[in-house]
Design goal:
The mean pLDDT is 96. This protein has 1 helix and 24 strands. The protein has a domain of 182 residues: Beta-galactosidase, Chain A, domain 5 (Distorted Sandwich), CATH 2.70.98. It is mostly beta strands. The protein is globular, with a radius of gyration of 18 Å.
């Protein structure tokens, strides 16, 4: 059975492989970074239940249920999605986690000392893609134990087609050179829910539920524009719990709309 899912509305085409957005074309123009191109081995992923590195805190994150072993950006990315719904313009993928279940860490042993990761709470994480008339909307739905702490970040990479691409908010412009200069910490764009990529084609990203963006790249041919609930470098790693949201007794929804302009 193929793990490739395709959506189409008008001149928009989306390609998803195992829950990962590997293509978004509009009239033949590809907006997403492509696997195998310089820059990053992925195209998109999620950062959950923590954002940022944890190595300086011995890979431990403090929760009300004790310390959890978490590597950079959490354990969700180490789990596999299941396709749970599909139509011509919509697809829904789900990951389910049982509290304290150990998950193999792909960073071990080359980039981490921790072979297995775990989290002391049950949760279900749903990622839906919906192609509308002129945009792609992703919705992330988190369901789990009341009181579960978490952070959420969405980490998509966009292909750059020109040498003078600019990322803009209503108040600031950022060049790709500026983003590269910040390095692995990623450039923080605080208190923003709308951001634009100005390249050969313009793209607007609008969010709901997220508070900030991070910008990251190490190469001039792609850039990651990442909606986040918390900028992890705002605190020391041992204080990363300062950035947690607490899950209530009902699902929480976060949205990202990617709209070509």
């Amino acid at each position: 059975m193929s793990n490739t899912t395709e959506l189409q509305v008008g001149n928009q085409k989306v390609k998803i492989v195992a829950g990962e957005l590997v293509g978004y074309q509009v009239s033949g123009h590809e907006f997403m970074h492509q696997k195998g191109n310089p820059g990053w081995r992925n195209v998109d992923t999620e950062m959950f239940p923590v954002i940022g590195p944890t190595n300086e805190a011995d890979f431990k994150v403090t929760t009300a249920k004790g310390d959890a072993i978490q590597d950079q950006h959490g354990l969700l990315r180490e789990m596999s999605y299941s396709l749970t719904e599909k139509s011509d313009n919509k697809a829904v993928f789900t990951k389910k986690y049982t509290a304290n279940k150990e998950v193999l860490n792909s960073k071990y042993p080359n980039k981490s000392t921790e072979a297995k990761l775990s989290w002391p709470y049950n949760f279900e994480f749903e990622k839906s893609y919906e192609l509308k008339e002129d945009e792609l909307v992703l919705t992330f739905t988190i369901t789990g134990e009341e009181g579960m702490p978490f952070m959420l970040g969405y980490h998509p990479a966009f292909m750059l087609h020109s040498e003078n691409a600019v990322i803009s908010t209503d108040t600031n412009d950022f060049s790709i050179a500026e983003v590269m200069e910040v390095g692995s910490r990623a450039l923080h764009v605080p208190d923003a829910n709308v951001i634009r990529l100005k390249d050969d084609r313009k793209l607007q990203i609008t969010t709901e539920g997220f508070k900030h963006f991070m910008l990251w790249t190490e190469v001039p041919n792609m850039v990651c524009i990442e909606p986040i609930t918390f900028y992890p470098y705002a605190v020391a790693q041992e204080n990363i719990a300062d950035g947690f949201i607490v899950l209530k007794n009902k699902p929480m929804h976060f949205k990202v709309a990617i709209k070509p302009m």
